[in-house]
Specification:
Blueprint: E1 28-32, E2 42-45, H1 48-55, H2 63-73, E3 79-83, H3 107-112, H4 114-117, E4 128-130, E5 140-146, H5 159-165, E6 178-184, E7 195-203, H6 219-226, E8 230-232, E9 246-249, H7 261-272, E10 282-284, H8 292-309, E11 313-316, H9 332-344, E12 352-355, E13 358-363, E14 368-373, H10 375-388, H11 397-400, E15 408-409, H12 415-423, E16 426-427, E17 429-432, E18 436-439, H13 455-472, H14 482-501, E19 505-511, H15 519-523, E20 530-535, H16 555-559
Parallel strand pairs: 1-3, 1-10, 10-11, 11-12, 12-16
Antiparallel strand pairs: 2-3, 4-8, 5-6, 5-9, 6-7, 13-14, 13-15, 17-18, 19-20
Length: 562
Amino acid sequence: MGFLVSPGVDVNEVDLTNVIPAVSTSIGGIVGHFKWGPVEEVVSVGSEKELVANYGKPDNNTYKQWFQASAFLQYGNALNVYRFDSSGFNATNTTGSPESTLKIKNSTDYQLSPQAVDESPDGNDTHFIAKYPGALGNSLQVVVVTNENHDNSPLSISETANNAVDKPSTEAGITDEFHIVVIDRVGTITGTANTVLEVFKDLTSTAGDKFDDGSSQYYKDVLEVQSQWIWAGADTIDITNSPIIGDFNLDGGSDGTAPTTTAMAAVYTTAFGDADTLDVNILIGPTGADSSAVGYAAANEVIAVSSARKDCVAVVSPPTTGGSGTALQALASTAVTNAKTWADGITTNSYGILSSTAAYVYDKYNDVYRWIGSAGHVAGLLANVDDVAEPWFSPAGYNRGQLRGVVKLGYNPTSTQRDILYKARINPLVSFPGQGLLLFGDKTAQSKPSAFDRINVRRLFIILEKAISTASKFQLFELNDEFTRAMFRNMTEPFLRDVKGRRGITDFLVVCDETNNTGEVIDTNRFVADIYIKPARSINFITLNFIATRTGVEFSEIAGKQ
């Protein structure tokens, strides 16, 4: 600020309107084995339709995590999906025998892969490659036709492709351009053989060629940016001596071996471990037909990721079989014992949430019923409560705990069995006559009695910590004086009052002054704020006392002033 030399008015502005930003509360995250889609890359999916479009339909090898993802999307509409695939390969049109070792995981891998941009592993001619690893790519056919001859293509080139191009005859003289049509040759993708998936018109084989609007006309660039199904291979299309290019059937793609629950759990750190680069609020742990020991080891890995991030919770469910191979949908007493054994191996942690059993769901894509882990459904209830109430409300019970799309549960625990489960930190899934299937508990995996042994309190503090810490970043490199501390209080206290008004907390206190920002603290370049919170608590136990009294007795005599 400058100083006035002669009399005048100097106008300055001080911004005291800083507020706490809204933060996400219901973004899910899952690692899964799927038939299609980018590998080792997080993709946001908003519906089951998008799940199918990005990752294919479920089958016997992929249904476990696929239906966990689908279950979550019945309640929430934001799911980050990470495809884990260690042994699948891409289909190609390779001349001679199909490639057996060509793996392009995603767009980044394509740009960096010498297999794609230099030469194929065995030196054979590779013009086209399926976009992602998986046997689904074996259904693809790529038809390349020149402007000059597409209407007179031989029968070996699909009539469907020619009809899709539908070029006017006036362009027949343009011989340095061609069209690419991607076809579902077998019908595995769409259900109907020879269905056109994509059409790319008026492409060239010369790098650097442009359309009139300045976009690339070079077919490799176009496919890389626009195609959902194929990459261009190492070998370049040459039309100079070939009026009709031909059709290319892709083959050699494989789904690979389905990863174990342990292997999948280990990937969660890679997929979701970095809170600074990826926003996620609810992790859905893998569930397999494993022993209790394998099951709790996998659960611990996923919960550890959420605990390290400190801005999300992890929902896990027990293996679909017990330690001796006993199915959880067998005798309830055995199932409860198996679930307790599993839970006993899970480290106490308020960032974990445990459900009790498997869920039986209908697979409309294969017309079968399947047992899956219930973690996806419970995670979905957490996302749903954010929409119908507030994140700090309990997701359990008759009002917000109704399971969707579940035919039956692995077992229905009795009241005594629910007591066993609850003591083991497991939230029971129950079926009450006329009430449907419910989540009937809101405990975290913390064993020590405290406010943080409840889901609503843990999520409340995640939201408060995330929102206030995000806002406090703007205090970095400012001066640690009363002005800055007052700005922090003026920003934080209205936010907490709002949460209090929305029933998340009953009271609070923000201390940020010279008492906790002493000279020693200031000299070490630190800023300290102590935020005291009284969280709202959910009701887990209801006591109703019905008292019969004598006629003529005044209630004030026995119950005091009302």
